[in-house]
Design a protein that fits this description.
binds zinc ion, single chain, transmembrane helix, 70% helix, mainly alpha, 11 helices
């Protein structure tokens, strides 16, 4: 169990000036990216629209994780790329449900595909945490359930602007207001860092990534 001093240090790191500026930048990116996607050149080409939309999910996932760990070493890039991959890969379930590689079929589904159900996120993250505990995976992978949680949640919140959040089996919410999406996305890394402090995960990350205290 982490000592109180370690917890305090980890908490200070998650609120460092650098980290707050990075998440402010993330909020600006969210504001700008979806405006840029409205350009008619992108909107008129289905593939370009789908790929750029997915690329924005990927960048948000990468940026969010970068806020959590801070980027200090080249090796941190591997984790950041993995976070982006997790944030964008879930759109593949459109093709699974369509049973086809046709983009038209994937975009005109009769219902939303399973990985877009938001109640799946905590279930998969907890199952992953349990599996890692059972199989005694090393501390160096303790970040994975958190990374999955942040990457998938950021994807769902952004999709929620158009479709609302699908909380199966309870139904779905109305569309998420754009301003709320920006606030949630930019504060999500800090909220998760805070909970990670309480569970001791962030202290492991801090020593792994050498995050310095900058307050
Ligand atoms: Zn999606």
């Amino acid at each position: 169990m982490a000592s109180e001093t370690e917890k305090t240090h980890a908490l200070l790191q998650s609120c460092s000036t650098e980290s707050l500026l990075s998440s402010f930048g993330l909020g600006i990116f969210c504001l700008v990216a979806d405006r840029l996607l409205q350009f008619s050149t992108i909107q008129q080409n289905t593939w370009l629209r789908a790929l750029s939309d997915n690329a924005v999910h990927c960048v948000i996932g990468m940026w969010s994780w970068a806020v959590v760990i801070g980027v200090k070493k080249k090796t941190d890039l591997g984790e950041i790329i993995l976070a982006g991959f997790l944030a964008s890969i879930i759109d593949i379930d459109h093709f699974f449900l369509a049973g086809s590689l046709s983009l038209k079929a994937a975009l005109t589904l009769p219902r939303r595909p399973s990985l877009h159900c938001s109640t799946v996120i905590p279930i998969v993250a907890l199952a992953l945490k349990l599996a890692m505990h059972l199989f005694k995976l090393k501390d160096s992978w303790c970040f994975l359930p958190w990374m999955l949680f942040i990457s998938w949640t950021s994807h769902h919140i952004r999709d929620g602007i158009r479709h609302g959040l699908w909380l199966c089996p309870f139904g779905k919410t109305s569309p998420v207001p754009f301003w709320l999406y920006v606030i949630i996305t930019s504060s999500l890394p800090h909220i998760c860092s805070f909970v990670m402090c309480l569970t001791g995960t962030r202290q492991v990350l801090s020593s792994k990534h050498g995050i310095r205290i900058d307050v």
